[in-house]
Design a protein that fits this description.
This protein has one domain (about 5-165): Four Helix Bundle (Hemerythrin (Met), subunit A), CATH 1.20.120.450. The protein has six helices and no strands. It has helices at about 5-25, 45-65, 75-80, 100-120, 125-130, 140-165.
C-alpha cells in the first residue's frame, strides 16, 4: 500500500531538516561544541541536544507514548538538560557544566532520529489525526506535531549556522 501523502510530506521534511543540520555540524570539532563565542547565548552542544530532545517528544512520544526501553536511548537527565527554557551554560576551563560529552549527545541525536523515522513510518491516519497540545504547526494534531518537528529543527539549525560563523567556520549555504 502506498504511503499516506501527508505522512510522506512530514517525514520528508524531517529528513531534509536532519540532513541540513548534519551538514552544519559535521566539521565542528567536539572540543568546540560547548564554546559560547562573544555575543552568543548558546553553544552547539545545547542546540544538538535540544533538537534530539524535541524530536523525541514531538514525533515519538506524541505518536506512541514513552516506552521503558526509550530510557536506554534518551534518559530523563538528558531530557531535563535540554528542555525548552533551560539556559545553555558555557564551557569553563574544559568543564562542560554537566553536559554529556559531544559523542553522547550525537549518539542520542542520531538514535532518536532513527527511532523517529521508524515510529513515523508506522503511523496510521488515526494516529496522525489525534489532537495534541501546543507546540504544533498548521493544526493541533500529531500531523501538526510532525510538521513542527522539522520546522523546529530548522529554527535551531539556523542558530547552529550562526554559531558556525562565530566559531570561524565558513557558511554551509
Amino acid at each position: 500500500m502506498p504511503e499516506n501523502p501527508r505522512l510522506a510530506l512530514a517525514r520528508g521534511q524531517i529528513e531534509f531538516a536532519r540532513e541540513y543540520t548534519l551538514s552544519l555540524i559535521e566539521d565542528i570539532e567536539p572540543d568546540r561544541w560547548f564554546e559560547m563565542p562573544a555575543g552568543a547565548t548558546t553553544h552547539v552542544g545545547w542546540q544538538v541536544g535540544h533538537i534530539a530532545m524535541a524530536q523525541y517528544m514531538l514525533s515519538v512520544v506524541r505518536l506512541r507514548g514513552k516506552q521503558p526501553e526509550d530510557a536506554e536511548l534518551i534518559d530523563k537527565a538528558f531530557l531535563r538538560k535540554f528542555l525548552k527554557g533551560t539556559t545553555p551554560t558555557p564551557n569553563n576551563n574544559s568543564d562542560a557544566s554537566g553536559y554529556p560529552p559531544p559523542e553522547e549527545i550525537r549518539r542520542v541525536f542520531d538514535g532518536v532520529h532513527i527511532l523517529s523515522l521508524k515510529e513515523t513510518a508506522q503511523a496510521t491516519e488515526e494516529q496522525l489525526a489525534n489532537p495534541v497540545q501546543a507546540p504544533f504547526v498548521v493544526e493541533p494534531t500529531n500531523f501538526g506535531s510532525l510538521l513542527f518537528c522539522s520546522a523546529h529543527e530548522m529554527l535551531h539549525a539556523g542558530q547552529i549556522g550562526l554559531l558556525r560563523r562565530l566559531l570561524g567556520k565558513a557558511p554551509v549555504r
